[in-house]
Amino acid sequence: MQSIPALQAMIEPLRNAFTAGIPYISGTLCASSDDLGLFYNTEKETRFLHFSTATVEDLDLLEKACDAATFGRNDQNVLDETYRKAGKLDASNFASGFDIHVSGLPELIANKLLDGQGNMRVRAERYKLNVYGKDAFFKAHKDTPRSEDMFGSLVLIFPTEHAGGSLVLRDASRTWTFDSAKALQDHSKTSSDSIPGIAYIAFYSDIEHEVTKVESGHRVTVTYNLYQVPCDPSSVSSGVTEKSEMKEILSGLLNDSNFLPGGGYLGFGLQHEYPLGRLGTECHRKVYLQRYRDLLKGPDAELMRAASQLSLDATLNLRYLYDNDHPKSTNVLCNFIPPESDKEIEDDYTIYLQYELDAPEISSRMLYDPEEKQHPWEAEWEERNGQEYLPNESKFWVNWVTPVANNKHRTTFMAYGNEPVLTHEYGQLCLVIQVGPFGKRQTASM
Ligand SMILES: O=C(O)CCC(=O)C(=O)O
Ligand SMILES: [Fe+2]
């Protein structure tokens, strides 16, 4: 079997391309006067304001018309002003003059955050209006998934005087800050338009994010949940495939006789999380993860596409590990969401998955930085045994290019969301690509 250091060196460019994606797009839009009108309900009446002329008093009145914004903590809807301090109006209580359908935003978002192949379009569902007054904020959370096809969130920030209230996004190793107050000021300085612009940011909703404290003024937003919808096939232009860096790197590896000469499996912990039907919601059959193939986001979608264009068999899985602390702990791969069982399951859930649900057992080799991400026993295990394992020592070896999550018997609830968890929760999937021996790399029947 190819040694771990040799394989690590070869795989690095692929890992770099896979982990380099940017999970959002942001900017400002030129607005028409109609875009900046807002009707909203108070308990007694319907009021109107126009963002280009609204005074501080007008915005104070809007803020007062709002309810305190709640959020989801596990499956509870909570009001906790140490975690989220902001006002909200539900979609039924306001009407904005901004028409998302003529804004061009759904097309822009589809282009940048969906597969880039034009197979999917974006449906934006208006969700809430929020007013962040002085000292308002929203601490780190993810946006609660409402269905399998919800992939993102869009925030419009209207042109009202304020400072602070940046949106900060974070993944495992990177942080991005969108200072919408500054973006709106810059827009006014550089635009010849007399009408102020609208700032926007769209991001994958499984990315952790927070709104920093508003220092002064009012930050008024309208948020949308973003869903992906297949396009009518006749409207998809055939043959237009975007150039893919990952495909080029992977294809270079397949043509190299030193890369996995006898074939093998490459595993990737995906870069994004996906809304899985919540466990415990009376599903008594396997739900195959294949259905998520067309719902993958950003780099995950690009990798899946590269594998299938190169005729490699690629499957989506949940990886279950019986015992985190035990070097010989059983690892199994499920290409399905395990059904609810009527039986009381003994403590070794992986045995149940293996013997009752036919999930294959695997052995793992970690190709990612052991210092940072590897569990201590894994590093030790590799050191002692990594290079001496014979391929036939276990049936199914997976070389992990990026860290893979350990799913427990039950997936844990998302701790902090913008809504309590109802039917779906985020799951951490992995993609396992089978590579044939040199000269016969293709493993998928196309
Ligand atoms: O206002 C923002 O920039 C983000 C708000 C947010 O994260 C939410 O409402 O879930
Ligand atoms: Fe959010």
TrEMBL record:
The keyword Phosphoprotein does not apply. The keyword Membrane does not apply. It holds the Pfam family 2OG-FeII_Oxy_3. PROSITE patterns: FE2OG_OXY. It comes from the Eukaryota. Residues 123-230 form the Fe2OG dioxygenase domain. One of its GO terms (molecular function) is metal ion binding. InterPro entries: Oxoglu/Fe-dep_dioxygenase_dom (IPR005123), Pro_4_hyd_alph_FE2OG_OXY (IPR044862). Keywords: Iron, Metal-binding, Oxidoreductase. Belongs to the iron/ascorbate-dependent oxidoreductase family. This is Fe2OG dioxygenase domain-containing protein. It comes from Cristinia sonorae. The lineage of its organism: Eukaryota, Fungi, Dikarya, Basidiomycota, Agaricomycotina.
